[in-house]
Amino acid sequence: MKILIADDHDLLLDTVSAFVRATGTMESVGVSNLQQALQALDQQGPFDLVLLDYNMPGMQGVEGVKRVLAHASSPRVALISGEASREIVKKAMAAGAAGFVPKTLPASSLVNAIKFMAAGEQFIPADLMQAAEAAEPHPIAQKLTRREMQVLEGLSVGKSNKEIARDLDLSEPTVKLHVKNLYRKIDAGNRTQAALIAKEAGLF
After folding, report:
1. Residue 33 contacts by C-beta under 8 Å, 6 or more apart in sequence?
2. For residue 66, what are the domain limits?
3. H runs (alpha helix) in the chain
4. What does the pLDDT look like over 117-173, one tens digit per residue?
5. CA dihedral 97, 103, 106, 110 (to 10 degrees)
6. Whole-model pTM?
7. How far is residue 154 CA from its own chain's centroid?
8. If DSSP codes are grouped into helix, strand and coil, which group holds residue 97?
9. Which among 39, 126, 153, 162 counts the fewest CB atoms within 10 Å?
């Protein structure tokens, strides 16, 4: 396998390249910006995988990924970065990237991820996926206030307005108002339907 690594940090570039060559089954070419990566595709390709640093010169965000993917050799492309938001990773994957590799990965995991992607698979670390899922609230949760979510949680376990009022230290008329508002926001007709909607959405 032949890997093109593009990163403007010399130490990291040398380190990753050394890890790749140490496998004995992969060779690597290192460059320091997007323009050099495109030139390497023309002059030293084809490559099984192109690893692009998200923040290096010339990338312009996910546009750099798209430019490399559009190359005539149709290389597989992945991002490597010390920091990248879930939104950036999602955009890169939507553009056709093979995955995302954090620079914080241990050497063995980094090499395995590179092999995995070069072989035609996709790679995103499980902890990044879990953190992303936790960071993205359900659309229903985004519609409701914190208090309305607390009231909905009470409804979802079958509590009466009186019980919810006691738990939240609210008056019963206030709870009734919250119930009415959350019914409207989640398009529920009654307590049972509201509880079912919350359950199906996995809110509690």
Report:
1. 6, 8, 56, 57, 58
2. 2-135
3. 10-22, 34-44, 62-69, 86-95, 107-118, 126-135, 139-143, 146-156, 161-168, 172-186, 191-200
4. 988 888 887 666 554 455 456 788 888 998 999 999 999 989 999 999 999 999 999
5. 30
6. 0.60
7. 32
8. coil
9. 126
